[in-house]
Amino acid sequence: MSNKHVTINDVGPRDGLQNQVKHLTVEQRLQLINALVNAKVPAIEVGALVSPKAVPAMAGTDGIISQLPSANCDFSALIPNRRGYDNGHTLGIPMMSLVLAASNTMNEKNIRMNTAAILDVSREVLQQAKQDKQAVQAYVATAWGCPFEGDVAADAVLQLCEELLTAGAARCVIADTIGAANPEAVFSVMTKLVSAFGADKLSCHFHDTRAMGLANVYAALQTGIRHFDSSIAGLGGCPFAPGASGNVATEDVVMMLSQMGYETGIEMPALLAAADLAIALTGTAKGGKAKYWLEQQYARS
């Protein structure tokens, strides 16, 4: 694949919706997923196989998985533990995602386990996944900053990635959960990780809390990263991480990449329609910062 090709994984239907006050129905969430598929988004996080008591917005994810369209798209779902893995494997979801934080306090607040305990759970899941030939990726959350502990050392991120990749994770997604990163810090950490593990084993996930989401995508791009999470219309925010605002908007990321000569395969007019749908369904999404400009360009053509 060309070094100018970038894969976008839209996390709007999961990460984007999990913190919304208004909980969308299964039908509405499928509507959003289908709109993203229509825009030729190559990968979509469709939900989370978690307790509906813990994250009510994700109730019914199993129903969504059973109704996913037949499309050339890599669908994924978040899992919290072995039970979630077993459920996802039975449902046939192509990719599952574990989440661990690089900071111990975040793990205790988010998963109610310390880092050592959640690593043990992750190893067990990854070992089973290897036997089942099931793809599981691992998110390394709070990679640049924790809402409880502050700055996070790059070595902690590197060590966690080494543990997870050795255990069999398909890739590590390095996540700026609260939008604490800056481009220089992103370039520094991702350079170390790419050198240690290779760019094809890594992805990045940025929030736009301090308006540096796009700049951070650019910084990671310069280190060789070619796989990014983003969220339609800028939806997002972790319910367990104070200060975590929306993810960097998919339409903004696709626009920047296109103008820089990168290929995503995503069709912008249909992507803007998906953003309109996300705004209409939630009543809170604002759309990407470039959305108005993009609409004007396509209105003229």
What do these coordinates show?
44% of the residues lie in helices and 16% in strands. The protein has 301 residues and is α/β, with parallel strands linked by helices. It has one domain (7-300): TIM Barrel, CATH 3.20.20. Helix 8 (183-197) links the parallel strand 8 (172-176) and strand 9. The two termini are 30 Å apart. The model has no long low-confidence stretch (mean pLDDT 94).
List the helices and strands and how they pair.
Elements: E1 7-10, H1 12-16, H2 26-38, E2 43-48, H3 61-66, E3 74-78, H4 82-91, E4 95-101, H5 104-110, H6 115-132, E5 135-141, E6 145-146, E7 150-151, H7 154-167, E8 172-176, H8 183-197, E9 202-206, H9 213-222, E10 227-230, H10 250-259, H11 268-282, H12 291-300
Parallel strand pairs: 1-2, 1-10, 2-3, 3-4, 4-5, 5-8, 8-9, 9-10
Antiparallel strand pairs: 6-7
Helix pairs in contact: 2-11, 7-8, 8-9, 10-11
